[in-house]
Amino acid sequence: MEHLEYCDALAVEIDRFATVFEGANEATMVPSCPEWSVHDLAEHLGHVHRWAEHLVRVRATTRVPSAEMDFARGPVNATWIRSGGESLLATLREGNPEEPMWAWGVDQHLGFWSRRQLHETFVHRLDLELAVGRTPVVDPLVASDAIDEFLVNLESAGDFSPEVREIRGGNELIRATVTDVAGTWTIQLLDSGFRLIDSTQTPQVELSGSAKDVLMVLLRRQAIADVNVALKGDRTLIDYWIAHSAFE
């Protein structure tokens, strides 16, 4: 996907989140985000949109804490969600995705943020729908890209997800494969961490299924037993990976 395609997909996800939130009980707890209510989830997403919009608008060269930004913090409702999302989209669409700027991930360009904010919003929309008892509708291409974006940037997430820095191994291979669109990722565990590699070697464990189901497992949104995925190989290895690898 290209920058403007990410923006278009983000617009869809913002509207979906806001629409579901309008009819939700804000006190409902979100099982896939422990200790968060629906209200907390919406407040988090609205803040993240405004934080990212500020970073992109000023072309930040270093991380700027959200506490230093003078953005609207509520009331938390669908109008507030849409307002922050629309501002973010306008700023992203006006920008050159190749322009250098700070990002917490691998890609140190403006284009990082259109992809990151799409998947931030997409996954939290799934969280919201699961919390209110809806069956999420998922575009497999978006879900597959979310897996790729997650794995590409995971090592960088060690700055705010300490367990990521603890991942170690002895050259074991973990593979994730999606079956409804093209997508395969192989992770090699090292004594110094982990890396994504191209490999045709047989992995010690492989997780396969639809892009949605594989994504939900890798991001600790749903357990392996609760989705339609196939697991081949060392279950303890994939359990270890999942326990240490999700964004916090």
Key descriptive features of the protein:
single chain; 248 residues; alpha+beta; Four Helix Bundle (Hemerythrin (Met), subunit A); Nonspecific Lipid-transfer Protein, Chain A; 2 domains; five-stranded mixed sheet; 7 helices
Strand content: 5-15%
Average of pLDDT: 96
| Structural Rg | 18 Å
Number of strands: 5
Estimated structural class: alpha+beta
Distance between the termini: 26 Å
Helix-strand sequence: HHHHHEEEEHEH
Q: What is the CATH superfamily of the largest domain?
A: dinb family like domain
Q: What is the CATH architecture assignment of the largest domain?
A: Up-down Bundle
Q: What is the count of helical runs?
A: 7
Placed side by side, the strands forming the largest sheet appear as 3-2-1-4-5
The domain tally reads: 2
Provide a brief overview of the structure.
With 248 residues, this protein is α+β, with helices and mostly antiparallel strands. The protein folds into two domains: 3-137, dinb family like domain (Four Helix Bundle (Hemerythrin (Met), subunit A)), CATH 1.20.120.450; 144-245, Nonspecific Lipid-transfer Protein, Chain A (2-Layer Sandwich). 45% of the residues lie in helices and 11% in strands.
Give an overview of the whole structure.
This protein starts with a helix and ends with a helix. β2 (184-190) and β3 form a beta hairpin. The protein is built from seven helices and five strands. It has two domains: 3-137, Four Helix Bundle (Hemerythrin (Met), subunit A); 144-245, Nonspecific Lipid-transfer Protein, Chain A (2-Layer Sandwich), CATH 3.30.1050. Strands 3-2-1-4-5 form a five-stranded mixed beta sheet. It is globular, with a radius of gyration of 18 Å. α2 (38-58) runs parallel beside α3, α2 (38-58) packs antiparallel against α4 and α4 (111-131) crosses α5. The chain is α+β, with helices and mostly antiparallel strands and 248 residues long. 45% of the residues lie in helices and 11% in strands. The protein has helices spanning 3-22, 38-58, 78-94, 111-131, 140-153, 211-218, 235-245, and strands spanning 173-178, 184-190, 193-197, 205-209, 229-233.
